Amino acid sequence: MIGRLNHVAIAVPDLDAAAAQYASALGAKVGAPQDEPDHGVTVIFIELPNTKIELLYPLGENSPIQGFLDKNPSGGIHHVCYEVEDIIAARDHLKASGARVLGDGEPKIGAHGKPVLFLHPKDFQGTLVELEQV
C-alpha cells in the first residue's frame, strides 16, 4: 500500500537558522518558506536526490508544532510521510485494521497541494505517520 518515503519532517525552534544550516553546512537545496494555515505551520522543504526534509515552524498560537517544541525545545523529528496512490482506500484499509486516523478522518490539502492524512503515533511504534496521495 505505501509507496516511497516522501519526506521526514523536523520541528525547529528557529526556521531561518535551520534553513541556513542545511544550505551552508550541508550544501542542500533549500526552498522558500511557505505558510500552511490549515496545519498551523510554516514549512521549508530541503530537496535531496531521493526524498525531502520538511522543516516545520509554528504558525499562530494554536500550532501543534508549538506544543511539540515546548516538550522538545531543541526541535526534533516530528513525522515521516509516505506516499499512497489512493488516500481514501489507504484510510479505509488502515481503519479496518484498527489504526486511528487523526482529525475528522477526511484528507486535508497538504504543503504539496495534495491530500494528506495523519495516523496516530501510538498505532505506529511512537511515530506520527503522514500519508500523501501521489
UniProtKB/TrEMBL annotation:
InterPro entries xrefs: Glyas_Bleomycin-R_OHBP_Dase, MeMalonyl-CoA_epimerase, MMCE/EMCE_epimerase, VOC_core
CDD domains: MMCE
Pfam families with a match to the protein in the record: Glyoxalase_4
Domain of life: Bacteria
Catalytic activity: (R)-methylmalonyl-CoA = (S)-methylmalonyl-CoA
EC numbers for this chain: 5.1.99.1
Keyword set, alphabetical order: Cobalt, Isomerase, Metal-binding
Principal EC category: isomerase
A biological-process GO annotation: L-methylmalonyl-CoA metabolic process
Domain spans labelled VOC: 4-134
Listed transmembrane segments: none
GO terms for MF: metal ion binding; methylmalonyl-CoA epimerase activity
Entries under PANTHER family matching the protein: METHYLMALONYL-COA EPIMERASE (PTHR43048), METHYLMALONYL-COA EPIMERASE, MITOCHONDRIAL (PTHR43048:SF3)
Family: Belongs to the methylmalonyl-CoA epimerase family.
Name of this chain's protein: methylmalonyl-CoA epimerase
Chain's gene name: mce
